[in-house]
Every structure is written in structure tokens, then in C-alpha cells.
Specification:
By secondary structure, the chain is α/β, with parallel strands linked by helices. It has helices at about 40-50, 80-95, 120-125, 125-130, 160-165, 185-190, 195-205, 220-230, 255-270, 295-305, 330-335, 340-350, 355-365, 380-385, 395-400, and strands at about 5-10, 15-20, 25-30, 70-75, 100-105, 130-135, 145-150, 155-160, 165-175, 175, 180, 235-240, 250-255, 270-275, 280-285, 310-320, 370-375, 390, 410, 420. The strands form 6 sheets. It has a 6-stranded parallel β-sheet with strand order 3-19-15-16-17-18, with helices on both faces. The chain has a 6-stranded mixed β-sheet with strand order 6-5-4-9-12-13, with helices on both faces.
Length: about 425
């Protein structure tokens, strides 16, 4: 029988999964690749900047005395800042804005703030030398200010320097998000530059049944993010939509809500995968670096994979996790916890906190599925998180062989795929 090969992103490389028996058992699930990448990224960004949506003149009143804050995501997001930022900075220069009046804020959220020697990873070599770059720290109370409360009673504490600038621009990408519906728009600042109390309160809304992948207008957590962005008075968004190779498919610029509306239409074309039924086994890659930089990030792929998997089925998550688990809060929460029931009981009786929320999300998936993790995290630590470790592709194949009649889905880019069940 002819052998079939499937390439699964893993860290900064790929793994080759060989289907050597009964290929009809397998279904390869990938994002829609029909949309072409832009031929010239620079020209695409320039065109977007010249054709703002949702606003007639985004640069009204901007001049040499205008202070500008630009938010970018940290190293855990594959945003093509090196393509997006230079044309934006050129436009600001043509409007007379001085370099000393422009500050780049790295949206860390609750992540560990990036160090200066890492800035080039997301900004290239020149921008950190030319402009002030500030990584946000959600626990630095001296650099936070209270600006109000959202409609859902989230207290809004945000980065003071960003908030006090005259013109506030968010730069990022739009893609499916496992509980905020979609990333992009104001989210990079509304969460990335918020205080921990704001993030914890907002993220508690993930317990709502409508806080799910691919839901925007009816998603309470995402709409709370929109309220935070409104209170922050975020003026403009420059967002890209990427394919699985991290190439730009589309760029949008203008008012954040208009940018989100336009971007979601493109994302849905790529990500909503029509399927008629769920699978017995789902082998899913998080998509490689940086989506699998740690388990904290890679867990998102587990959520996407679960939507393709039958109740009682098996999920195999392929994620290198070069930085390990990625959350001390998650690890500390799991210390001494022995089973899924204890995770849920402990989480339910505790104050909601980002970090431990990962334990709860994974436990909810474990209630319905067996989850195996193929990663570089030590097996004993994987087991302490109630996951089952796999240490080689042969072990993955052995697992498949234990289920001779199973239908298997292979998903190389799980976070880019949303299961869309066909109506019978």
C-alpha cells in the first residue's frame, strides 16, 4: 500500500507522520487555502493605510506635537510587525509626528514582560533603536490608571502611558480565539495593556456558554473587551489576516470595530471547516512556533481539536512547548490535584484567576475526551497536569493501532480551524 505523509508543525520545525495502513481511516483537515497571499506585503499595508474603513480622516489633528502610542503583541503571537509597522511609521512621519513622540507598547497581558534583548524578535533591529519600546507589566500599579467600569462590571485599569497619549493605535492579527471568539481589534490593548484585576474579571466571563470560538457579537467576554477598548479611547487598528504559513492574506486599517467586521469575514472563509461528523481520534498540531511556545498557548489548539472529536474520543496534541508549561499560576494550582473532579471543585471554590483558568479549561475537555500530549515537557510533569505523555511518533502510531476501527482526523493547524457541522 502506498505510504502517505502528513507534515505536522512542531516548534520551529515539522514532524512527518506516516500513514502506512488503511489511509481511508484518515481525514486531513486544513484551513481553506483558496485565498491567495498578498504578493507584496508592503504594498498591501500601504494600500490599507490609504483606504481606512469606518473613518474618513484618521489623521485629523495629527501633527508634530501629537503623542502616539502603538500597541504590538508579544512573542507568543505570530503578528508580522516587521511588515505592518514600517509603512505605518512612514505615514506618521508624513503627518509631522516626531520620533520622540512615538512609543511602542508590547502587549504582555499576564505574560512575563519581554526583555530588551528580545525586542528584535518581534520588531526587527531598527525600530527598537529608533523608538521608545515599553513592555507592559500588568502588576506594576505605578504605571496603571483606573478609567472606569464596563457594562459587565469589569473594573478597567490600564497602562497609564498608553492611555495618556493623544493617538492610540493597535497593531495585530485577526484569527479564531478559543473563548474570545476572535483575536484582533482592540483586544491587544484592552487585555494586553490592562491590569491583572481587569484581565481576571474579564476572563471570568469565559464560564459563559457563549464565550466560544467564532462568536463575536453574542460573546459576552469579547463584548466586554470591546467596552474596555472604548473606555481606553483606542482610535485606530491595523490588523492582518494570515494563512498557516504566517503569510499575509489581507490587511485592514481604520476604526477597530470596522476592522474587526471586515477581518472576521475573511477569517471565516479560511477557518470554518464543514464536516458531517466528529472523529474517534484527533491528532492536532498547535501550528508550531510561537503557537506552541508553551502549553499555556498550545492549550488553545486542544480546544479547537475537541470540537472535531467524538465524546469519549481521543485527542493527541502535538506541541513542542520549548518554554515548558508557561504559567506558574497554572502549575501551582495543579500541585496536589489528583483528578478532574478535584480540579473543577478547587477552581469553583476559588477566586477566578488567569493561570488556574487553564486547568479548568483542560479539565472540561478531559471530562469528554482522553488527551495525550506529544511535547518536550518531561513526562512526569505532563502527568501531574492530568495529561498522558507521548514521547515519539511511534507512540502516537501505537495509540492509533489500539483503535483498529477508529476514524482519525489529522489537523496540522488546529487553531486556524473551526468545526462547522453540516445540517442534515
Amino acid at each position: 500500500m502506498k505510504k502517505n505523509l502528513v507534515y505536522l508543525p512542531y516548534g520551529r520545525g515539522t514532524l512527518t507522520y506516516e500513514i502506512s495502513e488503511n489511509p481511508s481511516r484518515y481525514q486531513l483537515i486544513q484551513p481553506n487555502c483558496e485565498l491567495p497571499r498578498v504578493r507584496n506585503s508592503r504594498e498591501a499595508v500601504q494600500k490599507a493605510l490609504a483606504s481606512p474603513i469606518g473613518v474618513e480622516n484618521p489623521w485629523a489633528g495629527v501633527g508634530e506635537n501629537t503623542t502616539v502610542a502603538i500597541t504590538v503583541n508579544d512573542k507568543t503571537r505570530p503578528v508580522p510587525n516587521k511588515a505592518l509597522l514600517p509603512p505605518l511609521l512612514e505615514v506618521l512621519q508624513t503627518k509631522g509626528v516626531k520620533k520622540e513622540n512615538i512609543t511602542i507598547y508590547i502587549a504582555s497581558g499576564t505574560h512575563i514582560p519581554m526583555e530588551k534583548d528580545e525586542f528584535h524578535l518581534i520588531l526587527g533591529d531598527e525600530i527598537p533603536q529608533q523608538l521608545s519600546v515599553i513592555p507592559h507589566n500588568c502588576d506594576d500599579e505605578n504605571n496603571l490608571c483606573v478609567i472606569g467600569t464596563t457594562f459587565r462590571n469589569t473594573p478597567v485599569l490600564v497602562n497609564r502611558g498608553f492611555y495618556e497619549c493623544d493617538l492610540k493605535i493597535v497593531v495585530g492579527d485577526i484569527e479564531p480565539h478559543h473563548f474570545a471568539g476572535y483575536s484582533g481589534g482592540v483586544k491587544s490593548a484592552a487585555i494586553g495593556l490592562a491590569g491583572r484585576k481587569t484581565i481576571n474579571t474579564n476572563h471570568k466571563l469565559l464560564l459563559d456558554e457563549n464565550s466560544v470560538i467564532g462568536c463575536f457579537q453574542q460573546n459576552p467576554l469579547r463584548q466586554d473587551i470591546e467596552d474596555i477598548g472604548s473606555l481606553m479611547k483606542i482610535d485606530l487598528a491595523l490588523n492582518a489576516v494570515l494563512n498557516q504559513q504566517k503569510e499575509i492574506l489581507a490587511v485592514f486599517f481604520g476604526k477597530p470595530d470596522a476592522v474587526m467586521k471586515a477581518g472576521i469575514q475573511v477569517v471565516d472563509q479560511i477557518s470554518r471547516i464543514p464536516i458531517s461528523h466528529a472523529y474517534d481520534i484527533v491528532i492536532a498540531s498547535a501550528g508550531g512556533y510561537p503557537k506552541d511556545i508553551n502549553l499555556y498557548q498550545a492549550q488553545k489548539a486542544m480546544t479547537h481539536a475537541s470540537l472535531f472529536c467524538k465524546p469519549g474520543g481521543v485527542i493527541v496534541l502535538i506541541a513542542e512547548c520549548e518554554e515548558g508549561v508557561g504559567s506558574n499560576g497554572y502549575l501551582e494550582f495543579m500541585r496536589g490535584v489528583r483528578n478532574i473532579r478535584e480540579v473543577i471543585e478547587k477552581f469553583t471554590r476559588s477566586e477566578f484567576m488567569v493561570g488556574p483558568h487553564k486547568a479548568f479549561q483542560i479539565a472540561k475537555i478531559l471530562q469528554k475526551h482522553q488527551v495525550f500530549l506529544f511535547s518536550s515537557i518531561p513526562a512526569r510533569q505532563v502527568e501531574s497536569l492530568l495529561l498522558k505523555p507521548l514521547t515519539s511518533l511511534q507512540e502516537v502510531q501505537n495509540l492509533v493501532n489500539q483503535h483498529p476501527g477508529a476514524e482519525i482526523a489529522l489537523i496540522p493547524y488546529a487553531t486556524a480551524c473551526i468545526a462547522a457541522y453540516k445540517k442534515e
